């Protein structure tokens, strides 16, 4: 392969565009994959090799409020509150609320960014001489935020 690429370059030709194939069990049993599919499959395989569970769903998937709560690791009433406050867009199917997966993932990313910003601001005010007090203050602040959201104690604020 390297000889081919070297000869190709020596002839003054541009390097060929990379191509991706999925091979079957028999010789010649293969199908070409778009780059996006190849990259997605690589991410899936990497996650599985790390022991992570993987689900592949279209981002147009509509979730129930319970499914949305499970994905964010918060209570269903917390999700309903976020929907009613306009934090996450939703649609109504009869009396039931449905949330697009893409909208939920966007909210989760915005929430993470806010949390990282708060952590950065907190880091600047850490009293290194009294780390125990700083940790207690952070724990109290986290509980206060969870209480304002109506989350049960111990829910994953950082999801």
UniProtKB/TrEMBL annotation:
Residues 63-112 form the Helix-turn-helix domain. SUPFAM superfamilies: Putative DNA-binding domain. Pfam families: HTH_17. One of its GO terms (molecular function) is DNA binding. InterPro entries: DNA-bd_dom_put_sf, HTH_17, SinI_DNA-bd. This is Excisionase family DNA binding protein.
């Amino acid at each position: 392969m390297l000889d081919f690429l070297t000869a190709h370059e020596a002839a003054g030709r541009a390097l060929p565009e990379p191509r991706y194939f999925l091979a079957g069990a028999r010789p010649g049993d293969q199908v070409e994959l778009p780059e996006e599919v190849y990259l997605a499959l690589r991410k899936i395989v990497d996650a599985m090799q790390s022991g992570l569970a993987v689900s592949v769903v279209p981002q147009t998937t509509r979730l129930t409020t319970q499914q949305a709560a499970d994905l964010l690791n918060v209570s269903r009433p917390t999700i309903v509150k976020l929907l009613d406050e306009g934090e996450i867009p939703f649609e109504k199917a009869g009396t039931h609320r449905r949330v697009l997966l893409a909208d939920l993932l966007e909210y989760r990313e915005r929430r993470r960014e806010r949390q990282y910003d708060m952590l950065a601001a907190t880091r600047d005010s850490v009293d290194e001489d009294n780390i125990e007090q700083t940790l207690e203050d952070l724990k109290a602040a986290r509980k206060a935020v969870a209480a304002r959201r109506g989350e049960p104690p111990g829910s994953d604020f950082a999801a």
